Amino acid sequence: MAPRPTTIYGQVAKSIEALPLYYTIPALIVTLILGFIVKRRYLSPLRRFPGPFWASVTRWWLVHSIFQGDHEKTMRRLHAKYGPIIRISPFEVAISDPEAIKTIYGRTAGFTKVILTWRRWLMVRVNGTRHGIIKRLATPPCFQRWMKRFMQFAGATSQMLIV
User: Which whole-number Å values give the CA distances from 158 to 96, 150, 153, 162, 163, in the listed order?
Assistant: First the structure.
């Protein structure tokens, strides 16, 4: 009887079994890290937004920027390089376009909002309808006009502080 040909997977399995344990564990750790990076960078729904490489993998670069004290300068530099919408972490984007306020926070936007309930220290995700009801009860009717004026004031003030 002729020997059965082995598949590529069988050959790989035999070669892994032949390796000593001190080669296998680091190889497994490197494989897991690469899988983690590929998942966050290329399989995320935010993969189409530009940004630094480390922003798509982890949030630690942002924490480091905040602790260095140059977070505002870093964000301005990134917006100048990548545009008005940038990816700043695996699950977050930063938007510098003032016209996007109405698109994101409008009544019919359809974005999932996060509400902080301070008495329980819990963040709750709600859909657009429920968020609209809560927002109408909690915010004054002139909030959008106030927010636009505040953003202009904040931009002018931060410009004075940076320069």
Answer: 14, 12, 9, 6, 9
Number of residues that make up the chain: 163
Report domain extents, the chain: 16-97, 101-163
Q: pTM for the full model?
A: 0.56
Cα–Cα distance between 114 and 119 in angstroms, integer?
15
| 3-class DSSP state of 86 | strand
Q: What is the pLDDT of residues 33-64, one digit of tens each?
A: 999 999 999 998 888 989 999 999 998 998 89
Q: What's the pLDDT tens digit per position in 99-109?
A: 877 777 666 66
Beta carbons within 8 Å of 58's beta carbon, 6+ residues apart: 40, 89, 90
